[in-house]
Design a protein that fits this description.
Blueprint: H1 8-14, H2 16-31, H3 37-45, E1 47-48, H4 49-53, H5 70-91, H6 93-114, E2 120-121, H7 125-142, H8 147-166, H9 172-189, H10 192-201
Antiparallel strand pairs: 1-2
């Protein structure tokens, strides 16, 4: 289910939204390596609760496209590369980008309201957890008719949540808020008709 067998051109044609998000995140990360420009880009887009409180509201969106290092980027983009295509196929392009963006947005909004005024953060993890949450909603609807999905997704969600709390320098608030947002949106999006249609494509 989550094993990618497409070549590059097939992947791009089949999953244009995931491809765009991968290219955007990787491209922005490369820009942050450029002396001068990179530092300014990070300073302009990083989530900073103090600056948000002073009217820089774009920082509720821009952090989900910035990463603090290569490992941070690779972890998030690998998750998007593996799990994003299946959700884009199931939900459709418009619904997939809605899940991704709203999960990231609500993760950053929750961070603003629940973390301290001097808290700073960046990363696509809230949006990635939204993808996991949407799969959780799919498991909820298909747990009796497609148990294989449950056997794959639930351990991934549990491990991801556990790592959220045991890891260091992790925005726990964005992860959990993104997960909940993705799950709730998934509950509203998925219905027996499109689930049956998806299963026929398996």
């Amino acid at each position: 289910m989550f094993i990618r067998t497409e070549n590059f051109s097939q992947y791009v044609r089949a999953y244009p939204i995931v491809t765009f998000l991968l290219a955007l995140n990787i491209g922005i990360f490369i820009l942050t390596w450029i002396p001068g420009i990179g530092n300014q880009l990070l300073l302009f887009g990083i989530g900073d609760n103090f600056l948000i409180a002073n009217g820089e509201y774009w920082r509720l969106v821009t952090p989900m496209f910035l990463h603090g290092g290569l490992t941070h980027l690779l972890f998030n983009m690998f998750s998007l590369f593996i799990f994003g295509p299946e959700l884009e196929k199931i939900a459709g392009k418009a619904r997939f980008i809605t899940i991704y963006m709203l999960a990231g947005l609500f993760g950053d909004v929750a961070t603003y309201f629940l973390q301290s005024g001097d808290y700073r953060h960046l990363g696509a993890s809230g949006a990635i957890f939204g993808v996991f949450g949407a799969f959780g909603a799919l498991v909820y609807y298909t747990k009796h008719v497609f148990p294989q999905l449950k056997q794959v997704i639930l351990p991934i969600i549990v491990i991801s949540v556990v790592m959220t709390f045991v890891g260091t320098n992790i925005n726990v608030t964005a992860h959990i808020a993104g997960l909940i947002t993705g799950f709730l949106i998934g509950l509203s999006y998925f219905n027996p008709k499109n689930i049956v249609s998806w299963r026929k494509k398996r």
